[in-house]
Amino acid sequence: MSENEDIKIEDTAENTAEETPAAAPEPEKPAKAGKNLFRSRKFRYGSLSVIFTVICIAAVVLVNVILNLVLDRFNVQADLTANKVFTLSGQTEDYVRGINDDMIIYVTADKDSMKSSGETLYEQIVEFLDKMEAMNSRISVKYVNLLTDPDFSKSFTETLSNYQVIVKSGKTSRYRILTISEFMRFTLNDGNTYSYSEAMMYVNYGGYSVTDYTSNAEEQLVSAMMFVSQEDPTVVTFLTGYNEADHSTLDKILTDNAYVTQTAEIDKIQAVPEDTDILVIYAPRDDYSLDAVTKVDEWLANGGNYGKNMIYVATPDAADTPNLDEYLAEWGLAVEKGYILQEDTNYAYYTGSTLALMQDLKLNEESDYYKAMKIAAGSSFIGYYVRPVTKLWDEKSNMANTVVASAQGDKCRIFPFTADENWDPSQEEQKAYDVIVEASKVRFDGSTPIYSKVIVCGSELLFNQNFTSASNYSNGEVALALFDANTEKKDSSIKIVEKSFKAETYQLDAAAQITIGIIFAVAIPIIIIIVGIIVWAKRRRL
Prior knowledge:
By secondary structure, the chain is an alpha+beta fold. It is 34% helix and 22% strand. Among the domains are: 38-73; 510-542.
């Protein structure tokens, strides 16, 4: 390359340098401070993770607290027993929810001990009381230790003992004491059902054995609650003094259904007690005096105002009661001197004799008594040594007679008290016979009828304990209906089915087992896996 060329190149370079403006000087950077941790990406995502974790833990704790409160308040445990021994009936739930006054239920036992006792009855009582308390805030349940709280017993006139349930009204002074052992009922191999004390006597001394055992705890608890909550309970007076039969079975049926019962010796009182709503003459074996009959008649007449009811139960014995017979005739009724003999084999029971004195009876389905009943399906109304009750007229002046119950069919005869080994059934008329008849007198208050009634039953054995307590007979329901139909209880009584402990199981049916298996073995694991994958994928991008 020549010297001139070198000079050109240098000139060109100089000219280019002069034409290109100088670059702006870089601003002076501040001294590098420490890294801002709170603005870092890792901190932001890490904080969210911590916050999310805290929220989840707080939510779990909160849900746990809420669920515990819900469980304590509403008792949502499941009853997996085959007979639902821990489940209250729908009628009971409706009644308990409708209680409007405060009620306290004391149990003289330790709750935890009852729950862990292994005794189904004790566990059932605790469960029932928990559910009742949860259904209605006006009901409170308290467990009392009589040893550590001796002053508790001073509130009651009776001597208290362990394992009792005391139902007390918070509004009235009434209370009822129930003994837990009597909540259990036993069916023996004779086919009849007995209370605990009765069953133990037959088992220990009669050679009987238990075939089934049931609980009537629900019925007893509801009965006690109904009793203490009534401000004006129906009072039933049993008259005594004329060798009457034992009325304890009927008395128990009434008290179990919130009636108040009392006795009065008719010859030792000036008049039938004023608080009596229903009067009962229960199978007297001696005839009433004319003075005693007059007291009864004056009470039924009620000064011409009527509105009174009496139930007369005839004795199956060959008692001679002319004064009582004459009085019943004034009401148009007669109790015959013999028993109904059922000759239709479809309705007859033979108990060691060719004569069927035990038989099926039928109720008049048009009567108020039938409508007041809560009859168990498949049950029978049984009569044994029942005397016919004859209507002397259907209507007369202000009086009328209505059949409540009768023997089945028209193939019946009367087996007279005087029959001996030479008695010929064919000599007696074969026809239909009645066993319970209502006689009534009426007056009108404007257009409103007001009655006094006499209900006559053909035998005390209609209400024999063996018949009233057996689940396959409806005699107990019939007995109660005679009273309910003449009170305001006809639409409010509760029929509760006793729960058997014999077939207690904790097995789920096939459908429930499959459903639970799918939920816990398939659905929940899949949900957990999906949630895990989502969380893993999100955290992988951090």
